[in-house]
Amino acid sequence: MNGPIRRLATALFLCFTVLLGAVTWIQAVRADTYRSDPRNARVAIAQAGKERGMIVSADGAVLAESVPDEDDPRRFTREYPLGPVFAHTVGYTSPIVGDGGLEAAYVDALRSRRDLTLSDIVAAILGRDLRPRSMRLTLDSRLQQIAYDALGDRAGAVVALDPRTGAVLASVSKPSFEPTLLGGADAAANWDQLLQDPGRPLLDRATRELFPPGSTFKTVVAAAALEAGVAGPDTLFDDPSEFQLPGSTATISNFGGGLCGNGSQVDLMRAFVRSCNTVFADLAIQVGAPDIGFMAEALGFNRDLDFPLPVAESVFPTAELENDDAALGQSGLGERNVRATPLQMAMVAAAVANDGVLMQPYLVDEMFDPDGNTVSRTEPEVLSEAMSPETAETLTEMMERVVTEGTGTAATVPGVRVAGKTGTAEAGQGRSYPWFIGFAPVDDPQIAVAVMFEPLPAEGTSETGGRVAAPVAAELIRGWLETRD
Amino acid sequence: MTRNTEGVLVAVASALAAFGVALVEFAGGESIGAQVGLTFLVFVIAFGGIHVALRAWAPDATPLLLPPVALLAAIGFLEVYRLSPYRAGLQRWWLLLAAAVTCAVLAFLSRAGLSLLRRYRNTMLLVAVGLLLLPNLPSSGPLPIRGLTQGGSRLWVVFDLGFTELHFQPAEIAKVLFVAFLAAYLADRQAALTGAHRKLGPIRIPEPRQLVPLIAVWAGSLLILVYQRDLGASLLLFLTFAALLYAATGAAGYLVAGGLLAAGGGLAAWRLFDHVQRRVQAWLDPFADYADTGYQVAQGLFALGTGSLSGSGPGLGRPDLIPNAETDFIFAAVGEELGLAGSIAVLCCFALFLAAGFGIALRSRDRFRTLLAAGLTFVIGLQTFLIIGGVLRVLPLTGITLPFMSYGGSALIGNFLLLGLLARASQEERS
Q1: pLDDT number for residue A95
Q2: Looking at per-residue confidence, does B106 or A256 come out higher?
Q3: What are A156's strand-pairing partners?
């Protein structure tokens, strides 16, 4: 009888060995997978109610802070005093839907380390500072508010950069949302409501969505042409009422039809200032896809940008345009398959403003401890030397004349030399994306902007960037230069 | 190891239970108060009481049984307390009652001996069957005792005492009586069972007449499965029966036949019942239907993974996110808050208990005692394997409690009854 019992016991112990193996597999090998599964609320819950560092704007306005609860001072509520104005950049923290924006990107730095986890205890013994870090952003609360108000009730985005450093001065996307809605008890219901909102308020249009850049992309084509020596501002082009695309029956006509100049010949300067499609389709084909693509990539297209927020990769499809001049002609106008984020187009303006040198855009100026001592600071970095200073200077001259006498006169700011380029990208059904990119002051650039509106929903409501987007840029530039005085 | 060492280890387990409660209180921001002292007191009375009873009535019983049980109870209680202080308060009373049952068994059998059970084997079978049928009582009616359907399974009985209701899971006690009956039956019928065999080619198969009890118990288990939808109890009773038949006869044919019948019954149940299909689905891929059927298993895996090597610490994890954490999923709660270290400690405690139990069986010189000790040990080992295997996705989830650890009065009483019988078997074998 002992033989069978021994074998039964052995079988049970083998079963237990399987359990030991399984529990080790789950808790040691696969632990991180289960721990970080988005459906596992434990990590977010552990952070909820804990103190986090502050987030303040460049001008010292509090954007996010942890306020102790009245009845339990060990628990904290996260407050966002400026709410929807900074919702897409600062983000939100929620035990139910997780974190977003910089709150998610910098969760490890912002969180309190006094959790008594093993690694924290070791760090404490080694004398490290376990208090939560705070962060100062490059965003200016006044400029951010101006941009937020200027977009009004329409869907759109504004990005403003300091062209000399790459610091993001403003980044606004509309419609926006109230971040505290995602932190409270009704977070799940509010989240569902925001997700189902047809206006897509959770989407950061400044960085996460791609739009056809329209004629603002002519800045890139002109830069490539100048850099390659294909044309200068005085180079003459034919001035047809329609440009016949090679190898295609399609034609390109100017906005509103008509001629660019006198009907015989027109120079590049005038074509740029008046945003002539016929000339730029012709020019794009003359420069060629490789050179335009090279310039676009130097300015940030087709690149995975190193940025704390998720950024959609702007697209210039060089390879598919190399043997398709008809498509290349349309792409030279920022249409067809060319796509860009508002951040990307602000970088184009910033590179021209900064003598052709594109700076790496950044959002976080410095991290500081609760005593106010700086722990780390972001040093401006060069992302690329996109074009020669001479090319940048010529482009600046062309862009300034867009504002003084061309399609962008609505961007005029009294007493300030403003340079810019308008865009009106087709959205189908007679609708458009109005754009404006630009910078100021021309002799000492301090701000580069991109303004983009989404099309109005109704058919036949096309609006030009010069009429709708340029005034927003003017407001931003005026507002920014006033705060500097 | 001596009885004195046993006493020291039991005191250490009691202190650990109290220390665990203190940590949970501290983690919750409470000041450390009465709960800690009360827990220590209850553990000292319960396990100290069993220790004293062993000294008085079973002085030669192995001292290896009680310490792992005390430690398992301490770890289990700590997690129950962390999940529901209210239920932990009830669990303390159940612990006292269960320990009293162990002491009573030891005192009662110190005169009559285990052979008493052998004489009343048919009574025990009747009581066991009666207990198993109890949940089928009508859910409403004039009787003060009624059945209760919970989570799709009908395995609870409610006693209406007028001022309060008492919930009871009779299968937990029936399983002990059933094993005792089987041990007595098989010890008596050994000759008949091993003697006659037919040959089917090279395979020896038992006389068809001898297969009748096997088939009867198989049918009974299926009935439990069909009417009470209790996959766990059904599987536990049937496999224990097959294992004991094998132990008594040494005929592997019983195991093969038992395995085939279990597989056939399982397959039929899988074809016929939604709840079995859902459990198999949740086992194969808990994340396929995460929000519904796979939720419990998935939350268990999240808990274990988040706990990782060292755990969150008592009171600092979120095992309350797992449905039924204090009963079926207590192992996942331990794994989350005490980490892989705690999980392995629990498995080792069970292994120690099994080793002590099988040791008693192997050293016994009496057929009945051997089968009783082996059966009681096997049922604990199998139950542990079934439920932890379900939590760890080694097996489909069967939904039974983890012995000595899960919240629940009937389970504690049943398993402490089992502990008393095992200690008695050890005493008789050594004296």
Answers
A1: 76
A2: B106
A3: A174, A453
Cβ(A389)–Cβ(A351) below 8 Å? no
Domain assignment present for A13:
yes
Helix B171-188 crosses helix B231-249 at what angle (to 10 degrees)? 20
Tell me if A272 is assigned to some domain.
Answer: yes
Q: Is B3 left (phi over 0), alpha (psi -120 to 50) or beta?
A: alpha
Report the distance separating Cα A74 and Cα A416, nearest Å.
52
Q: What is the pLDDT of residues A46-75, one digit of tens each?
A: 766 778 899 999 999 999 998 888 877 777
Enumerate the residues of chain B whose CB falls inside 8 A of the CB of residue A9.
354, 358, 377
Question: What are the residue ranges of helices labelled H in A235-336?
Answer: 268-273, 277-287, 289-298, 318-321, 325-331
Query: Is residue A388 annotated as part of the catalytic site, yes or no?
Result: no
Least Cα separation, residue B300 to chain A (angstroms):
10
* Contact of A39 with B384, CB cutoff 8 Å: no
> What's the whole-model pTM score?
0.64
Domain assignments of chain B as residue spans, ordered by start: 3-430
Q: Which residue of A has its CA nearest to B307?
A: A27
Query: Which of chain A's residues have a Cβ under 8 Å away from the Cβ of B388?
Result: 19, 23
Shortest CA distance from A24: residue in chain B: B340
Which one, of B139, B396, B158, lies nearest residue B273 by Cα? B396
Query: CA-CA-CA-CA torsion for A149, A150, A151, A157, nearest 10 degrees?
Result: -100
Q: Tell me A416's DSSP state.
A: B
- Mean pLDDT on A152-176: 96
Residue A52 lies in a domain: no
Q: Please state whether the peptide bond connecting residue A445 to the residue before it is cis, i.e. omega within 30 degrees of 0.
A: no
Give residue B152's identity as a one-letter amino acid code. G
**Residues on A contacting B at a C-beta cutoff of 8 Å:** 1-6, 8-9, 12-13, 15-16, 18-20, 22-24, 26-28, 30-35, 37, 39-43, 45-46, 72, 74, 116, 118
A21 found inside a domain: yes
**Contacting residues of B for A39, CB less than 8 Å apart:** 290, 298, 302
Judged by CB atoms closer than 8 Å, whether chains meet at B247 and A8 is answered as yes
- Cβ of B339 within 8 Å of Cβ of A27? The answer is yes
- pLDDT score of B202: 58
- Please state, in angstroms and as integers, the Cα–Cα distance from residue A418 to each residue in A169, A323, A346, A473, following that order: 18, 38, 15, 10
The interface residues of chain B toward chain A in range 84-113, judged by CB-CB distance below 8 A, are none
Number of inter-chain CB pairs under 8 A, A vs B:
130
Residue range of the domain that includes A400: 214-365+378-484
Q: How many domains does chain A have?
A: 2
Cβ-based neighbours of B52, under 8 Å, separated by 6 or more: none
Give bridge partners of residue A391 from the DSSP assignment. none
